[in-house]
Amino acid sequence: MPIYRGPTEYISPSSKRALRLALLASFALVHCITATRLGLSSEVMAQSKLKPARTTPVVSPKADSQPPLTPAAADMRDAILEAVHSGRIDDLRHAIELNELKPDFGAAPGADPIQHLKALSRDNSGTDILAALRALLDSPRKSVPAGKDPENNLIYNWPRFADEPLSKLSTEDTALLERIETPDTLQAMKASDRYTGWQLRIGADGIWHGFTRLR
C-alpha cells in the first residue's frame, strides 16, 4: 500500500527499498576509499622514515668546483683546442685572429705571436706549448670579476690555483702542475711556494685575453 507523504509527494515501498540500497552502497564506497587512503598514508609515512625526501639537488664536488663557461667563452676554448688537437702550433693562429685585440703572449709589440711561442718552446716547434694548453684546458678553472658589464664581467683563469701557495695544493692540482711544468721549473716553484707557470685567460664575452708565464 503506498505511503502518503502529503498532497504532492509520496514514496512507494519499492522506491523506499531502492533508496536504502543506494545509501548503503554509498556508505560502503566511502568506507572503502577512506581505508585505502589511510593505508597509502601509512605506507608513505613508513617509506619517509626509511628514506628522507631530497630537498636540494645533488651536485658532484668536481662539477661544483668550477664556474660554467658562457657560450662565447666555450667557443673560444674550442677554437684553441682545435689547434691543440691538430698538433701544429701554427693552427693556433685562427683562434688568435678571432680577437680584434690580440691576446697577450708576453711578446714584444709587433712580434708575431706564433713565432714568439715557438721561441719559448723547448724544441722550437711548439709541441710542449700545445701540451701545456691542453693540460690547462682539461683542468679546473676559476672565474674572476672584471669590468662593469653585469653579463660579461668574468675572466676565466686556468689553472685555478695560479694565485695559491703551492704547499696548499690538492693532490689533483699537484698532479696537474707536474704535467705542465718541467722538473727544473717545478723545483724552483716549490722552493718559492709560488706558481710561476703558464696561465690562460678567456673572458665571458669570448675574448682571449692572454697566455703567459706568471712572474
Report on the architecture of this protein.
The chain is an alpha+beta fold and 215 residues long. The protein has 2 domains: 48 residues; 153 residues, no CATH class. Helix content is 48%, strand content 12%. It is built from 8 helices and 6 strands, in the order ββααααααββααββ. The strands form 2 sheets. A 4-stranded antiparallel beta sheet has the order 3-4-5-6. Helix 3 runs antiparallel to helix 6. The radius of gyration is 36 Å and the shape is globular. The N terminus is likely disordered.
Question: What order do the helices and strands come in, and which of them pair?
Answer:
Elements: E1 3-4, E2 10-11, H1 13-50, H2 61-64, H3 71-86, H4 92-97, H5 113-120, H6 127-137, E3 142-145, E4 154-158, H7 171-180, H8 183-192, E5 198-203, E6 208-213
Antiparallel strand pairs: 1-2, 3-4, 4-5, 5-6
Helix pairs in contact: 3-6
Number-wise, the strands total 6
From the helix content, strand content and strand pairing, which structural class follows? alpha+beta
What is the count of distinct domains?
2
Form type? globular
- Count helical runs: 8
- Kindly state the mean pLDDT as a whole number? 78
Summary keywords:
four-stranded antiparallel beta sheet; disordered N terminus; 215 residues; two-stranded antiparallel sheet; alpha+beta; globular
Describe, in short, the structure shown:
The chain has 215 residues and is α+β, with helices and mostly antiparallel strands. Helix content is 48%, strand content 12%.
